[in-house]
C-alpha cells in the first residue's frame, strides 16, 4: 500500500469517527428536546395567568379594619354603647308602660279575672289588688264566710268574692252557672249607655305551697299529708277542672304562680312543698298539651317565683324586729307587670321566671352535685341560726333592762 493510500484511509477513519460523534450528540439533543416539548399542539399555546378569586365580604371587612384600626375601635365602642343604651331604654319603657285593661264605650270595665288559691295570703292579695287597680273586674274564689268578709274588707268596688264550694259538686256547679250567666248577659253602666258584655280574660291560680308543713318524711303523719294535699294541690286541680268549660268558651288563659327556690334545691324537711310543686307542674304541663292538641285556644303559663319584695310582708318583718335580708329582693311590680302582660298577650309564654334567684337556683339544682347544694344549704342554715341567736340575745338584753328599770322604780 502506498503512502497516499494509507493517508487517505486514515483521514476517512478520522472523518467517520467525528461524524459518529456528531450524530450521537444530535441524537442526545433530540431526545432532550422531545422530553421538553409537549407532544400535543394545544400545549404549545401559553396558558393565561391564573386569576385569584374575588375577596369575600368578610375578607374585605377584615382588611379594611386592619387598615383603619383607630376608626374601627371607635365604631365598636359606639356600637356597644348604643346597644346598652337601647336595651336600658327599652327596659325602662317597658317597665313604665301604662298598663290598663280595656273599657267599653261608656267607660265601664269589661275584662274579668278570677283569682283562686290562698285567698288571704300576702301574694294573692297583692296580685288581686293590683289587677283591680289596673282596670280588671276581679273575682276571688272563696270557700268560707271568713274569706268573703276579708275580700269585702279590702273595700274595692271591682274586687268581689266568688263563693265556690268545691266539697259539694252540685253547689259548685250552680255557683259557676251564675258566674257564666254574668258573662253571657248584657250590662249597662248607666241609663242611656250602650250595652256591653264582660270578657273572661283568665284564671289566676295562687296556691299557698310555701305554707306546707315542714319536717322529715318520717315525722309527717298521714293526716297531715292528706290535709295538705287536699288543701293545696287537689283544690287547685278541682278549681281548674270546674272553670275549664268557661275557659274554653272564652279562650281564656290559666296562670299558675308557685315558688321555685325550695323545689329547685330540694332541701331536707320540705318534702310536702316539693311534692305539691312537682304535682302542680306535671298537671299544668299535661293540661297545656291537651289544650293545644284540642285547639281550644286556652294557654297555660307557669310563673316560677323567686325572692319577691311583698310590701305587707316586709312591713310585718320590720314590726317584729327581724333583720333585713342582705340580698335585695325583686320589687313586686315586676310580677304584677308580668301577670298583666300575660293576661293580655295573644301568645303568652309557657313559663316565666320572676324574682331574684328563680333562674339561678333552678340552674344550680339542675346542674350542681348534691354535695354542693348541701354545702350551700348548710351555710344558709348557719347564717339563719346566728341571726336567731343574735335576736334571742337582744331580747334577753331588753328583758334585763326592763327588770332593772322596775327595780329602780321600786327603790
Automatic annotation (TrEMBL):
Residues 387-411 are annotated as: Disordered. The chain crosses the membrane at residues 70-90. InterPro entries: DUF1776_fun (IPR013952), NAD(P)-bd_dom_sf (IPR036291). This is DUF1776-domain-containing protein. The keyword Transmembrane helix applies. It comes from Cladosporium halotolerans. Keywords: Membrane, Transmembrane, Transmembrane helix. Coiled coil: none annotated.
